[in-house]
């Protein structure tokens, strides 16, 4: 692993390294959430710097993964929200793909305070012990900290984009309503509904009217846990409030169609989604 700016990685760091899923996706996603660990895409580090890092947030440090092109920059930043399995090799590879495209990509482990999810396999346990106990306010501060880290290590905070997958897609909607400095957001099959709680008071649909940047949503027509009509309703709320939102539905795609290490992967739809993402970022200044 490359030593990024004096950081030697996380070999001694005790916090968690992977995440799983949210309660709103517990049904209909068996295929999409099966872990196969047979990755289709492998991105090398030629021409980029990439490795595990520690991200200062408040009085602690979160583990994360950071990748950027070789050179001084500054490079546009893309904040990568971990999907249901956390910052494992798939998310790391996705960061390297962004670095190859000219971005400083940062993916923080936002559930690290709550346990080592790499050792947990039961969805109900993950939801009850970790996901449901993760305050959205803390999540948003952690994402702010990740952006600050990237900006301090070769990234340009004035050219900021955000993306995320599954649970990270939901968090992308929330972050788009939180950070006024964002230029663009792209949510991959992020749930827009869900029952509120004291620490997770608003859904993506609830904050749709407050998003502060153009948002592109990429969804599967055969997603067993997210209804397309619910997504379109959230988009309609945002548009009625004068926001720029576009929803693309891949008719034959299930949940997790970008995740190239699971049976849900759909190469053509995933590739098209990435092309749309990069074009969206370019159109709205996150480049």
Describe how the helices and strands are arranged.
Elements: E1 48-57, E2 60-69, E3 75-81, H1 89-100, E4 104-108, H2 123-129, H3 136-152, E5 155-165, H4 167-176, E6 182-188, H5 204-207, E7 215-220, H6 228-240, E8 245-250, H7 267-283
Parallel strand pairs: 3-4, 3-5, 5-6, 6-7, 7-8
Antiparallel strand pairs: 1-2, 2-4
Protein architecture, described:
The protein is an alpha/beta fold and 287 residues long. The protein has one domain (23-283): 3-Layer(aba) Sandwich (Rossmann fold), CATH 3.40.50.1820. The chain is built from 7 helices and 8 strands, in the order βββαβααβαβαβαβα. The protein has an 8-stranded mixed sheet with strand order 1-2-4-3-5-6-7-8, with helices on both faces. Helix 5 (204-207) links the parallel strand 6 (182-188) and strand 7. It is globular and about 45 Å long. The model is unreliable at 1-32 (pLDDT under 50).
What would the keywords be for this entry?
287 residues; alpha/beta; Rossmann fold; eight-stranded mixed β-sheet; 7 helices; 8 strands; 28% helix; disordered N terminus
Instruction: Give the overall average pLDDT.
Output: 87
Low-confidence stretches: 1-32
Radius of gyration: 17 Å
What is the N-to-C order of secondary-structure elements (H for helix, E for strand)?
EEEHEHHEHEHEHEH
The SS-based structural class is alpha/beta
User: Major β-sheet, in short?
Assistant: 8 strands, mixed
3D shape: globular
Strand content range: 15-25%
